[in-house]
Model the fold of this input.
Amino acid sequence: MRKRIQRSMVTVLAVTLLLSYIILTLITYSSSLSVLEGEVRQEARYIRAAINISGAEYLEEMNGVDWTTRVTQIDRDGQVLYDTRQDEETMEDHGSRKEVREAFASGEGEDVRMSDTVGQELYYYALLLDDGTVLRVSKSMDGLIGTALANLPFIIGLGALMMLLAWFLAKWQTSRLVRPIYELDLEHPLENRTYEELTPFLQAMDKQNREKEAVSNMRKEFSANVSHELKTPLTSISGYAEIMKNGLVRPADIPAFSERIYKEARRLITLVEDIIKLSKLDEESVELEKQNVDLYELTREIISRLSPQAAQRNIRMEVTGEPVTYYGIRQILDEMIYNVCENAVKYNQENGRVSVWVGNTLDGPKVTVSDTGIGIPEEHHERIFERFYRVDKSHSKERGGTGLGLSIVKHGALLHGAKVTVDSAPGKGTRIGMQFPKAAK
Done:
């Protein structure tokens, strides 16, 4: 950044010097031409006055003088009668010259051009004499390129000095400009007093810091919850096994104890599997390819798998709607719908009902799961998707589950760009909708 600022400042100075050189050249050329025009006009008027008084012989008398100005006399036929630098008999017709034509027409004329005779750029000024001939006076001048070359050494010297000075000034100014940036307190971005242009950057950094802190706290809470959730079934398994090892269980009670150990082991395995699934979703390491999935048929399969669990509590399950094809990851879609339907069974009333609707809406495919369960207070609607969060903590163990199901649903929805909504109230059941976007095809 420092070097870029220095280069920018030096570049700006170099461009400024170049423009100044061009402007100076144009001004010098224009000024020189203006001065030359005044001198030639004044000299032409003096010579005209002398000729009108003394006649054309004045020119012959002045022929031996070392003239720095070229004087030419031309008649109406364009023939050169006199010229200070050339033999007039060898000179071509001058009647077509611009300044000569203007002089014959209006009494005076002028022009600036390269002379074919002397090979220099000249300023020509012509006046009409009393005898009807034209007196033309001309003087050589530096052209635009010559003026530019004349100014070049001065500009080179000045440019070298200015570039050297600019380099040191740019270095000093750059250090002064970047010092507040080097001194930024990145832990507390909004407490810095610096350039106004950095405010959006500091605000974004502050937001990122708060998000990182929230993620860090969430990870700490997750680690604590994982430890607790893993410890509970392990403690139970260890306790039951120890009792059996010490021979404190009657032979008739061994099947019951084995059943308890089996259930706790299954609970532990399910918990570990859910943690692995959630970790993969967190890291976006899902490597499964997307495919066309019929959400209606997938939901029917899930309801069939949950039927034995629902039958134990005499809960009736039904699927309505229409076939809907969605382009997504089948395994993740299965986990999402399964977890929502499983919660609808687990947290339902005896002899309750679970209704699932699958179909197309204006916003895209949608799956809605409704139950006649215990319901969820409004203040818990947002938090039920957090890991290990349970609304009914007192009955969480007897209802089963790991507390990670809806968190998996949330991450699966994020992976597919879907939106999950909750409509529930205590004693009035729960309805969870999963709205998938059209653009996901």
